[in-house]
Design brief:
The complex is a heterodimer. By secondary structure, chain A is mostly helical. Helix content of chain A is 74%, strand content 0%. By secondary structure, chain B is of the alpha/beta class. Chain B has a single domain (2-207), classed as P-loop containing nucleotide triphosphate hydrolases (Rossmann fold, 3-Layer(aba) Sandwich), CATH 3.40.50.300. Chain B contains six helices and ten strands, in the order E-E-E-H-E-E-H-E-H-H-H-E-H-E-E-E. The longest helix of chain B has 16 residues, at 165-180. Chain B is globular, with a radius of gyration of 17 Å. Classes of the chains: A mainly alpha, B alpha/beta. Chains A and B meet through helix 7 of A and helix 2 and strand 6 of B.
Chain lengths: 265, 209
């Protein structure tokens, strides 16, 4: 049962045939995607091959500091990507997103690794790095959605926020409704995925384990842990980032910043 | 009661100087052509935006010594287009009292209803969704909401622009009786010259060379 069917180099080369199909569709219909497709295919091959070698190396080394270094690097890249995906937010420091991601994924990742999966050693890179990958991939999307929504809500509700300020509300009191909407926006996709998992979608990790020869019942147990840990990490990450960010909407004197009172340009 | 001497640049270029000494029971009418920063002046006094330089005193106390949230509840700015919150008219009137600065003051529903009646707002509006009010109704509701939080100074930006003649009279009557109470005064920006208020003083804004 527990064996993976190998894919040889020749078999792997056959998968390029699939790219040709996509390429033909793209060129016949003049979708203007051919260049991106070719470049994307090359990058997929190169990036994943390199990651394969890197992971082999990291797994053999089995060193706590190396695991910390790799997960920090992953968090930094995720933070950079997240702040770029926020069209409503002017220049946002990636450092804050990094701190939010780091705190949420380290907390949840440690709980999962130490208490739930409990490999030996507890920081076993074979377990910890894929877990961080999944946590970061989802948290990155979540915090980007939250951050973007916070700014767009603040802009849309600027008259209400100012009205609350004129009654003596602090920035924290005046921004409450926008904060709630921002958190909801960040957490909703993850919570929705809890509803349909296994019915509409078969998650990539579970599929991978089953293809890799694992018992589906065990793969399902892993998937349950993964889904719940992702939900927790997204919730914590969004909460932290929104908490770090709301003050940036206000001046030092606690008034709304002028750019939120103007239309977007 | 309220003194200020400020410079500011409403359009980013021309620098305006504004100075006045407002005493209790007085209405200071800010007079200047359109686009010369009358709204900006009121927003600065409410600490919603910064001035270039200057000083403001309320009861002899420098505004820098008072936290912004306390200041804004005392020197209350009534926007030209008042923002109404989600919910009923009653929700809108009660909402400010959830703020910590005002938490010691009770929400007086009967006082609110009496003010609404004086402003010719029918009592059936109480339960109505505030977002369905007309512009004139919203302007009067905003005055009721402002009076309930009992500021010392009211900064009114074209408050009667959306009102018909009878509503305007009612508006000024309510405002006048509030100003007559001890410890109150107002700044008013208005294009219409029929203020129907006593004890007026005119502030002319002048631009600095």
């Amino acid at each position: 049962m527990n064996q993976t069917l190998p894919i040889s180099n020749i078999q792997l080369a056959f998968s390029v045939f699939l790219v040709l199909i996509t390429g033909m569709i793209a060129s016949f219909l003049r979708l203007g995607l051919l260049k991106s497709l070719v470049w994307g295919t090359i990058r997929t091959f190169v990036q994943l091959t390199l990651v394969g070698y890197a992971l082999t190396y990291i797994f053999q080394w089995n060193n706590l500091w190396l695991v910390i270094g790799v997960t920090m690097f992953m968090s930094w890249v995720a933070a950079r990507t997240a702040v770029k995906r926020t069209p409503n937010v002017p220049k946002y420091p990636a450092l804050l997103a990094f701190l939010a991601l780091l705190a949420s994924t380290y907390l949840v990742g440690s709980i999962v690794s130490i208490l739930i999966i409990a490999p030996i050693p507890w920081y076993a890179p074979r377990i910890v790095i894929p877990i961080f990958g999944m946590l970061l991939g989802n948290s990155m999307t979540g915090i980007a959605l939250s951050l973007d929504r916070l700014y767009s809500e603040a802009r849309a509700r600027a008259p209400e926020i100012e009205a609350l300020l004129t009654f003596g509300a602090t920035p924290w009191e005046a921004i409450q409704d926008s904060l709630r909407e921002a958190l909801r926006a960040g957490m909703t996709p993850t919570i929705n995925s809890l509803m349909v998992v296994g019915i509409v979608s078969l998650p990539g990790m579970m599929t991978g384990q089953i293809l890799g020869g694992a018992d589906p019942r065990l793969a399902v147990r892993y998937q349950i842990v993964v889904m719940l840990m992702i939900t927790a990490a997204v919730a914590i990450g969004c909460l932290l980032l929104v908490g770090f960010s709301y003050k940036k909407l206000f001046t030092e004197d606690g008034a709304l910043k002028p750019f939120l009172l103007q239309s977007r340009n | 009661m309220f003194q200020f001497n400020l410079t500011y640049a409403p359009g980013g270029k021309e620098v305006i100087q504004a100075a006045a000494d407002v005493v209790e029971g007085e209405v200071l009418v800010v007079s200047a052509p359109s686009g010369t920063g009358k709204t900006t002046l009121l927003r600065i006094l409410a600490r919603l935006q910064p001035a270039l330089s200057g000083q403001v005193f309320l009861y002899g106390e420098d505004w820098l010594g008072i936290p912004a949230s306390h200041w804004r509840a005392l020197v209350h700015y009534l926007a030209q287009k008042p923002a109404l919150f989600e919910g009923s008219v009653a929700d809108n009137l009660a909402k400010p009292f959830a703020i910590r600065v005002l938490s010691e003051k009770p929400f007086l529903a009967n006082k609110a209803k009496a003010l609404m009646a004086e402003l010719r707002l029918p009592s059936h509006l109480w339960e109505q969704d505030a977002r369905t009010l007309s512009g004139g109704e919203a302007a009067r509701l905003a005055l009721v909401r402002a009076l309930l939080i009992e500021p010392a100074l009211m900064l009114l930006d074209e408050p009667t622009a959306a009102l018909d003649e009878r509503s305007r009279q009612a508006f000024y009557a309510v405002l006048q009786s509030w100003i007559r109470q001890p410890g109150h005064a107002a700044l008013l920006v208005s294009h219409a010259e029929d203020y129907q208020l006593n004890n007026l003083k005119i502030l002319n804004l002048r631009s600095l060379p």
